[in-house]
What we know:
This protein is mainly α. It has one domain: Na+/H+ antiporter like fold, CATH 1.20.1530.20. Helices cover about 80% and strands about 0% of the residues. The chain is built from 14 helices and no strands. The protein has helices at about 1-25, 30-55, 60-80, 85-90, 95-105, 110-150, 160-170, 170-185, 190-215, 215-220, 225-250, 255-265, 270-280, 280-309. Helix 6 (about 110-150) packs across helix 12 (about 255-265). It is globular and about 45 Å long. It starts with a helix and ends with a helix.
Amino acid sequence: MSSVLASLVPVFLVIAAGWLARVTGFVEEKHWPGLEKVTYVVFFPAIIIATLARAELATVPVGGVGAALVAAILVNAGGLLAARGTLERRAGISGPSFTSVFQGSTRWNTFVALAVAGSLYGERGLALMAVAIAVMIPLLNLMAIGVLVRFAGGPPQSARDIVVAIVTNPFIWSSAIGVTINATGLVLPAVALDFVEILGAAALAAGLLVVGAGLDMRRLARPGRAHWLAIAAKMVLLPVVAVTLARFLGVFGDDLVVVAIASSVPTASGGYILAKQMGGDAPLMAEIITLQTLAAMLTMPVMITLLAL
């Protein structure tokens, strides 16, 4: 419980700092787009490359952990896509809003997950979480980009346009680079690793600050159906499905707890950057991230205890 709270409270405080910086005018409105862009194009790709490149995957149950997490994500994603028309007709969730619900229901905050797993299980916890990162980040970004291209409300896209959008997306090419380095055993010069890690260190703070800057507290105080749907799907359904599948695949003990952690953390702050850059409902995405971060202080300890301990 204390490890979970210790990881989540600073995340929420950085979001609050971003909101205060914007509403007080300490950081002028004209400066936020520049921070959003450098976070999207530079900082997040750097942390993805660094994390995937140095992951020690040989010592952990890659198959069971990876398969359970991927299958759980696909269950959530498939259910949302199947309900897309119903959500618009009955809940008033438009295409751009649906993209934020989709990201909020499937993506996960790797920084919180790494902090909790490392605090509980040390190097093995970090190695297990690296498995989750390796299998989840490329898949989640591919799905998120596809959904944004399809439902964000922009002009119709050809198959070529969609492929180009995926290939040139910083989240995708950085995942490909990190996985390739890990799989080939390529040894990078120390200078290159230090360079990437320094850039990546800025990702969490910058990402959370721009999330806070995008908040509308009036909407946050009155969460609607879209907010509650994303909270229920991500914070309850995803961990239940992931842990159930992991047990079926023979994952137990500490490994199972790490599956519970990876699937029960709040959604990723990078979802806001992606929504802002690709025409999704960025304010709704910011609200979902903040509400899930708050909710996780209760739901994460409960879900981990009930499902895995």
